[in-house]
Amino acid sequence: xxxxxxxxxxxxxxxxxxxxxxxxxxxxxxxxxxxxxxxxxxxxxxxxxxxxxxxxxxxxxxxxxxxxxxxxxxxxxxxxxxxxxxxxxxxxxxxxxxxxxxxxxxxxxxxxxxxxxxxxxxxxxxxxxxxxxxxxxxxxxxxxxxxxxxxxxxxxxxxxxxxxxxxxxxxxxxxxxxxxxxxxxxxxxxxxxxxxxxxxxxxxxxxxxxxxxxxxxxxxxxxxxxxxxxxxxxxxxxxxxxxxxxxxxxxxxxxxxxxxxxxxxxxxxxxxxxxxxxxxxxxxxxxxxxxxxxxxxxxxxxxxxxxxxxxxxxxx
Length: 316
Known about the structure:
This protein is of the alpha/beta class. It has eight helices and 22 strands.
């Protein structure tokens, strides 16, 4: 079965208060969008489609030589309109996985689980959900007779619906036939006057098409970034992942809560990194090195067995 992946990156990100596109803000030294590229590429789709708005020239110019297909959403008319705007780039008969460009914590394992289930169960729609104690702001997953009847957005939800704790994550896989036959059936008859991609779930229910929700264990995986505080919070989670991976692979990190390491940095086993160290860019620390306290290294190469004295600055 052919898989295409659509990455939605056309959001204005006004709460970032920046001239830069939201998905180009960096986490551990890389634009958050690149983490979505990484996860997508591991799934080996035959096509990755990046949806932008007309004024996001910074994204297009940076990635125009990458193996991507580009689509444009001319006006911000909702997620349904966003997906519809990208369909001209969809390969015939390809399933479409829809990801958000501002959700860098999503793991390949979770996406693989969703897509494998989509194929095995022959679903028309498969999407990720989570259970939240405080679901405010999220679309609720409304069940009836043990079937998914609809995803109801917060602004359109009754008080009864708002009590539902299972919520939509915004990550989906659609079968080609269902999507292409029903995307034009979306209407903007809702509080926000937008075309919701979530309304396809209700269409599927009405047509007795098969829809499956897969609940994820860690809600952080689908945490979006809408402001600078959320950017900082998610960077902390990703930094913790980075440091834990290095330690599992044989690197000693003293007082890890004081250490910062970019995603692109490579550190080899039996190296010791002491407190308050910053490693950035394309730095490579070979094995059996010691990096002293308060050192700063950017784009540096530290040869095997080297000792970097405390307070050293290397900026290549």
